[in-house]
């Protein structure tokens, strides 16, 4: 049987690569989808105290990562949707080994939240921290293309990760367009100072609720 016919495996073969790889573009798209789902459920918890959506999201999250880690990333629902979204973009191949380690972390976090929030039906700092860590991992993946779990993998294992996003695994000097000048750093510090000053000067205005620009709000009818 050819390798390409195997159902249970991790990573895919690509021409020019000696190890199993995954498409970083669809991984980032998938991370964005999961980040959005968790963010909405978290907003509902904070604003309305409604945990219903969060419980569904945790079940989806856990099931998705079980499929990724124990079956095949090719059959992960969120990665399939991610592939549909970026199907017209050229693939960006990354090593599968470090991604499996990173997704195992996600699997453990989602399993902990599933046990405490769904099975036991409780909330605590444990579920809160787990949710926050998931958000941080997903944010770095989708917004910056940085796999935090992959970095942990590089620290724990002696064998160097291969084919990292943005080629960060390869030691190389930065190109001119990647370098940050002293002036750019001053702009960042200046911008922070500007925001801090604006907050100080307009703090009273910021705390006031905006009023209607056109007309006035209808007052509630008196009984």
Summary?
Helices cover 59% and strands 3% of the residues. By secondary structure, it is mainly α. The protein folds into two domains: 3-173, no CATH class; 177-206.
Overview of the molecule:
With 223 residues, the protein is mainly alpha-helical. The chain has two domains: 171 residues, no CATH class; 30 residues. The protein contains eight helices and two strands, in the order βαααβααααα. α1 runs antiparallel to α2, α1 runs antiparallel to α5 and α4 packs across α6. The model has no long low-confidence stretch (mean pLDDT 86).
Rg, rounded, reads: 23 Å
**How does the helix and strand content classify structurally?**
mainly alpha
Question: What is the string of SSEs from the N terminus onward?
Answer: EHHHEHHHHH
Q: Give the distance, in angstroms, between the N- and C-terminal Cα atoms.
A: 80 Å
Helices and strands in order:
Layout: E1 21-23, H1 24-48, H2 52-71, H3 77-85, E2 93-95, H4 96-119, H5 125-144, H6 148-156, H7 182-201, H8 203-207
Antiparallel strand pairs: 1-2
Helix pairs in contact: 1-2, 1-3, 1-5, 2-4, 4-5, 4-6
Keywords:
globular; mainly alpha; 8 helices; 2 domains; 2 strands
